[in-house]
Amino acid sequence: MNKPVLTIVVPCYNEEDVFMETSTQLSHVLEMLIADSLISRESKLLFVDDGSKDRTWELIESESGHNSFVKGLKLAKNVGHQNALMAGLETAAKKSDCVISIDADLQDDISVIQAFLEKYWEGYDIVYGVRESRKTDTFFKRTTAVGFYRFMERIGIKLVPNHADFRLMSKRALEELFKFKETNLFLRGLVPLVGFSSAKVYYDRKERFAGESKYPLKKMLAFAFDGISSFSVAPIRFVTFIGFLAMFISILAGVYALIQDLLGHTVSGWTSLVISIWFVGGLQLLGLGIIGEYIGKIYFEVKKRPRYAIERDSFSVSQTNQQIKEAIGH
Ligand code: UDP
Ligand code: MG
């Protein structure tokens, strides 16, 4: 195998406090990997400036003048972590054999990048960085994260627990990822859908060494909800279920009201009112649920996700050989 060209993609939003340190440390990692003959000399760092309002882009630009590893990609406006990362991956994939994504704050342990590359050499197409401990996270972030992964698993969404966007992907895995055309990106949910062989590398998550988290609670909740609604129609099913339940209760309530009526225990008009309230309410919820089911289907269609990924194909190969033979007249 030839030495692979590696590109490390780093999305940056208002990261002027951390940029220089990150760039220095990652350059050092590349040098070590080149010295160990794990990657090609053509390997690069690609910093994606996600519409920062501070001096991040100026720093990237000036650093790219001194450090031949450093390249920059500037986005026209802030599009959020996931989209910025995607922009970086698509740009990087054109000139790389494999791409690693990592956050600019170096909370993820860069010393395991070597292990990522070793897995790549063993033939894995995707290598997930998985947090071993969350000691440095707050109690709140830790418990919400654990709850989130449990919930996602319950409603049938496959995620790699404790894996954020620190991973290596081969060129062919990336090319399959690019076929997912959805606008609401949740990369850590999409990558497992790509398939191919994958490995995990464990590490300890550190504290942000400068600057502050760009994920306040509100963004975190929005991110979690995106993750759920992009991969599952379970919430819509739940509405349908409530509708059925209401209908069922309305039948029971109807029987009860009729009995009360026959026994003469009721004020006139009560029975018909109670029955219609329950029945109409149940019917409405049921209707909403069914319409929701269809919207859910349309929703998945509109995404135009690819239906399969080809890993090997002997059929097309032999067919092309046949075509070549025909073309040269044998
Ligand atoms: N980021 C980005 N665009 C945004 C928000 C964040 O590119 O709109 C980047 C940010 O610069 C960092 C990464 O996404 O490299 C993760 O952000 P952060 O470290 O703030 O998230 P946390 O680690 O707290 O979840
Ligand atoms: Mg961070």
UniProtKB/TrEMBL annotation:
Its main location: membrane. Its EC number is 2.4.-.-. GO terms for molecular function: glycosyltransferase activity. Residues 7-178 form the Glycosyltransferase 2-like domain. It is an enzyme of class 2 (transferase). It is found in: Membrane. Coiled coil: none annotated. One of its GO terms (cellular component) is plasma membrane. It is a multi-pass membrane protein. Keywords: Glycosyltransferase, Membrane, Transferase, Transmembrane, Transmembrane helix. It holds the Pfam family Glycos_transf_2. The chain crosses the membrane at residues 238-259, 271-295. This is Glycosyltransferase. It comes from Bacillus salipaludis.
